[in-house]
Amino acid sequence: MLGHFDMIAIVVVLLGLVFAGTHIAIALGITAALGLYLMTGDIEVVRNFTANTAYEALRDYVFAVIPLFMLMGDFLAKCGAARDLYALGNRASKWLPGRLAAATIVANALFGFVTGVSIAAAAAFSRIAYPEMRRFGYRPDFALGCVAGSACLGMLIPPSVLMIVWAVLTELSIGKLFLAGVIPGLLAAGGMIVYVVIAAKINPALVGETRDGQPIPRPAGAAAAPTTDVSAEEFRKMLFSTMLVIALILGTLGSIWLGLCTPTEGAGIGAVGALILAMIKGINLREVWQVVLDVGRTSGPLLLLLFCAQLYSRVLSMTGFTEAAKAFLLSTGAGPWGILLVMVAIWFVLGCLIDSISIILLTVPIFAPIAVALGFDPLAFAIIGILAIETGLLTPPFGILVFTVKAAVPDRTVTLGEIFRGSIPYWIVLLAVVVAIAVFPQIATFLPNLGTKAG
């Protein structure tokens, strides 16, 4: 057990390394090694403990879930599934005010099933949805806010990489955590759709229309407003593609939820199914090889991150830091709700500065045991945390999702101010869902508990 000064030194070193730009895995590893050395004074103990943790962590069967789900997502994205989802949503909702924005939200929610990575969704739909909305006369900030705000759904709707990382760190069931995210994800998506429909109804100019639903007249010499019509053959192809994707998603996640296979086995089935679907849609062997390489480059560092996070988490427990943090927060007299508010505020601030996975690796080993000790349901707390972190990604002045959209959007005249301004309503929707789950945790726990009772 370390003294208070040593515990503070460990946290200061970690934060100093992170904000100095050191890779999060390196920062976690150095901090863990420092904590062990301060506690034992023996570098040989540090070396042996690190080696044992690496062996035990990386041989865990559940670690294969991440690259397999990434393979599934990349195969579906590579073969054009995202574009088909978007085009079909647009085609099927001609009657709806702000239909392109609503289609973007629905497609992002479905794309969340496919990739589980919000930054990937933001980058994809900046190039798919934004140009289409601009062609139809949507105001830039309204279109940009829709792309950035709805991209947050990617981390909330399973199979989310954040959920997998959270489950690995806290030893929660991945299947149950996936189930816990479904209703909050649908609530968030529904709230966003309600916003765009009401906004388009109140101010049709936001979506390039007049009060009577006609396109705003274009200036002389400008191209006429485009049409949403597609041929019957194109519509059938989009519908067939989308139905296959939905069947694959439901089959993969359903088999995990019903206990027919483990998350790792389900992810393997999903990856093979996605490969078959991609080949049906015309992906070639060179593109298959490129997808495998890309997933390897992405998931390799992520597995290193998880090892360093487990090392950091173990050292925190051994040094007594978690107990000291819990005692300190309880001594403030803020009560469970006040402490939860502090945690959410920390997530908001960190969400402005660093990426989601790094935030989870830094905070969850400390926050999760405290939340359980305070009486919060671990599944509901996980969803609150993931939502709060995603909300931080939209928060000025450094929301990473906003910068992703700015970098990916084809229009170079777009400003960060426009994206932040357009994202505010989506930020409010996500915050409202956080509050709703905090007050009514059953929103997150209903489906996992239903599965338990059925079992």
Describe the structure using short key phrases.
455 residues, mainly alpha, 21 helices, 78% helix, 0% strand, globular
Structural summary, described in words:
- The chain is mainly α and 455 residues long.
- The chain has one domain.
- It is 78% helix and 0% strand.
- The protein has 21 helices and no strands.
Q: Summarize the main sheet.
A: none
Q: Based on Cα principal axes, name the global outline.
A: globular
Rounded to an integer in angstroms, the radius of gyration calculated over CA atoms is 23 Å
What fraction of residues sit in β-strands?
under 5%
Helix and strand composition category: mainly alpha
Mean pLDDT score: 80
The secondary-structure element order is HHHHHHHHHHHHHHHHHHHHH
The parts where pLDDT drops under 50 for at least 5 residues are: 220-226
The total number of structural domains is 1
Strand tally: 0
